[in-house]
Q: What sequence folds into this?
């Protein structure tokens, strides 16, 4: 069902200039059906029920995608929709209690989705309210309000299960403050401030548990090159190396090698890209984009490459792939519809879903597209052994697999020196990225305490390096290192 280039061009001309109702209706029926994938190309999938941009899209533990809020015709939306990859269709779900756009959405370890801040009019007052979505009931419930209303902020899920919200704007005031949301209590608490109030910045969780905030725009509407690090252990911020090029509305991606790729942004739709090295706190230039872009989306693919698509202040449909091995960008298949301020979601089957967005002049879009990266997805991961750094005492044993787009399996872990023991922990989430996998879920410790956990593993057998295993519990315990015995296998 892939539309040929001539057909797409003809359809665009008829749709925009003649607006024939019959053709538009037929095309709508065509787009509502799931399409066979073509590697490195985009295929239309079912259209959103409501056209929107500045919305959020969150992958739920059951494999569906939750799209929330956004803007339509200068009016923020309260509606939310669910995308089912199995059918390629959208269905309504419960609406927000407060309409909002330019908010954040964070999947919590318990499977619920936290939506925070945003704005309810355009332009309008920044919201302090926050809400929780329960996938089991499809409903929203209020939770604790932010201490400071904010829009254009960032939200980062920390290894301890708390959510860090940083920066943003409160009715014309550019914020340097940050707050922590505790899912256990449903409350927010202040946590340090960074060097400069900023909006349109990025926030990236690093492998060491710190959060990197980079770039943005200050109260003088000047783009920023500065960057800051948040340390959850101390609740404080510190300055780190500055970007080589000041930018905002850019993308930031944590690569499998632990470095952070920042690409594009404003002013003037930049084509430059940079790499941040957490070991040195410095930035270095990397390959240049083929097309300058901002307000685009990025996705880390399972093979370790980075996909960016759309963006810019004019209509842009191109997409590119960044290869960390060579530091270069290459064009891949173009979107069928140019768009900016859209959202992108990596699905469990390895495909990328792009939803909504706007054409130039803020015309909202309802269409959605799927990108096939041509990757054979890993479906299961297993391992057992012990790790260094724990007196050779910490041991683990696990097996997890995707079963009908749902994770299944079990995990056990023991560190006698720390009096930590967990058996047959439930696996709620499972994602793959090349030779690495992330597991998450709930468990009870030997003393009966209920915790959430996240596990990161890497199968390094192909390059001769030792496999790695790390675990973080919601009670503050963490351990990790290379294996001193055993093996991890991803296939």
A:
């Amino acid at each position: 069902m892939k539309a040929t280039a001539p057909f797409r061009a003809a359809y665009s001309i008829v749709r925009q200039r003649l607006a024939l109702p019959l053709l538009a209706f037929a095309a709508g029926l065509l787009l509502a059906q799931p399409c066979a994938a073509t590697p490195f190309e985009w295929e239309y999938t079912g259209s959103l029920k409501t056209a929107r941009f500045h919305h959020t899209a969150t992958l739920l533990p059951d494999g569906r995608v939750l799209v929330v809020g956004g803007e339509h015709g200068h009016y923020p939306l309260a509606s939310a929709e669910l995308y089912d990859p199995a059918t390629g269709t959208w269905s309504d779900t419960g609406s927000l209690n407060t309409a909002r756009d330019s908010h954040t959405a964070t999947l919590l370890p318990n499977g619920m989705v936290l939506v925070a801040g945003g704005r309810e009019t355009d332009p309008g007052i920044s919201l302090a309210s926050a809400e929780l979505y329960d996938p089991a009931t499809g409903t929203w419930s209020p939770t604790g309000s932010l201490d400071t209303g904010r829009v254009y902020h960032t939200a980062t899920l920390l290894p301890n299960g708390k959510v860090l919200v940083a920066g943003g704007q409160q009715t014309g005031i550019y914020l340097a403050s940050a707050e922590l949301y505790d899912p256990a209590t449903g409350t927010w608490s202040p946590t340090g401030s960074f060097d400069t109030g900023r909006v349109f910045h990025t926030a990236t969780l690093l492998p060491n548990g710190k959060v990197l905030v980079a770039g943005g725009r200050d109260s003088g509407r000047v783009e920023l090159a500065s960057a800051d690090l948040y340390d959850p252990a101390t609740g404080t911020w510190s300055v780190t190396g500055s970007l080589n090029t000041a930018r905002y509305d850019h993308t930031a991606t944590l690569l499998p090698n632990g470095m952070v790729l920042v690409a594009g942004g404003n002013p003037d739709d930049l084509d430059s890209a940079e790499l941040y090295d957490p070991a040195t706190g410095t930035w270095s230039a990397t390959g240049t984009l083929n097309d300058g872009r901002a307000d685009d989306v990025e996705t880390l693919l399972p093979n370790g490459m980075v996909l960016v698509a759309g963006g810019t202040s004019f209509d842009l449909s191109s997409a590119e792939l960044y290869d960390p091995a060579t530091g270069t960008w290459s064009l891949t298949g173009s979107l069928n519809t140019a768009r900016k301020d859209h959202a992108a979601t990596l699905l469990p089957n390895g495909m990328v879903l792009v939803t909504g967005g706007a054409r130039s002049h803020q015309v909202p879009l309802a269409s959605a597209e799927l990108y096939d990266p041509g990757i054979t997805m890993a479906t299961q991961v297993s391992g057992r052994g012990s790790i260094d750094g724990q007196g050779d005492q910490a041991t683990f044993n696990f097996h997890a697999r995707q079963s009908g787009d749902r994770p299944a399996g079990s995990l056990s872990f023991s560190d006698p020196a720390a009096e930590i023991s967990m058996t047959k922990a439930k696996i709620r989430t499972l994602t793959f990225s090349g030779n690495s996998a992330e597991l998450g879920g709930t468990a009870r410790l030997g003393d009966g305490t209920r915790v959430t956990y996240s596990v990161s593993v890497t199968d390094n057998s192909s390059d001769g390096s030792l496999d790695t295993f790390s675990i973080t519990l919601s009670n503050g315990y963490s351990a990790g290192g290379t294996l001193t015995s055993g093996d991890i296998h991803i296939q």
